Amino acid sequence: MIPKRYRPAVVAGLTAAVASGSMLAPPAHADALDSEPRKADRRTVAAFARIADDVLSRRAEALVEEHAGRGGSNKDTSTTRMSGRLKKDEAAALRSLRSRKARLAKLGEAYTKADTRVVVERATITGGTATVQVTSSSTLTYKKPRGDAPDTTAFSTRQELKLAGTKDGGWKLTTITSRDNGPAAVAEPSAARVNTVEDDGNQYPDGTPASTRYPTTPMPSGKTAGAYDYSAMARYAEKYWRSYNPAYRKFNGAGGDCTNFVSQALKAGGWKSVPGSAHDYRNWWYEGASQSTSWVGTNEWAWFTLSNRRAPNLSSVYQLDVGDVLQADFDRDGSKDHSMLVTYRDRRGMPYLTYHSTDTYRRSLASVLASYPDARYFAYRT
Q1: Is the pLDDT of residue 31 over 60?
Q2: CA distances from 133 to 15, 123, 293, 326 (A)
Q3: Residue range 155-169: average pLDDT?
Q4: Distance (Å, whole) CA 48 – CA 54
Q5: d(CA 282, CA 72)
Q6: Structural contact between residues 153 and 31, judged by C-beta atoms closer than 8 angstroms
């Protein structure tokens, strides 16, 4: 047990707003004096979808190898129109993604293709401005230097766009802001921010951070036959990473769904409930109308796991195997922010993580480390 600097937090939100451009649209905002929100018509919604697709596709393509296609062109031009300030912000965002691509290359990872699809969920117009909520689904194709690495990784993000009408009947994008409260997707340039509260004076089993040193000697799988079905954990997570299991409540709007999702997968693989007070971190359970804080809380899950000797810490993140859990303290403040489950590991020893908030399928450990190189990580052998 070591002193705990911060009280329990269900999960921390992160991601910062990044702004970008716009395209021409029908003159749907001619009456700038109309102060009542109204739904955009089908043609205008299609124009908004093209705007979002242009910006979000270019972000994903900034990670693609130069010779592999459009994404490698490194062009800062866009078919969208944007305000001067936001044009600079988006140019900086693309530069940061290309820096991330360079960090990925040093960790042995590259992408050869990016495919992004955007769906407009809601679009309203008030006077001369528009608010548009979209869901973007992206798939990155891994370059396979050797062995049995997965073909792709995928993620789904939710964004809100703000647009201003222009005199010629077009639209200019003024902001594009993430609506997710999980870690930034690999194609999202953002900084971590976490929610913390004052130290309550108690002590908690926080565990020991794992080494992220690379290169490292590939470590053999540490799994052996036992009480848990690790394949079932992985199958569960990969089935419900984007289409949530309706048997469980969602916590996206209440701090994040990442630990709730990990707990579900662990239960599917054989973890047994520990009944008792919902607020005692030594208990772990879920019922239809309630659950223990350790079921959904990032820190509380770690305290339960370590205090019950359910899953000890590993000394290196590269020891992680299928069914194991990785947690991150993004700003190194002593409060853990995010939980992820390993659902695949290739013969090189690279773990691939699947998680909620932001909904992600088989993201490599290298990608997480490249996106948050200064974070503190905790690895758990389930």
Answers
A1: no
A2: 17, 6, 31, 31
A3: 95
A4: 10
A5: 50
A6: no
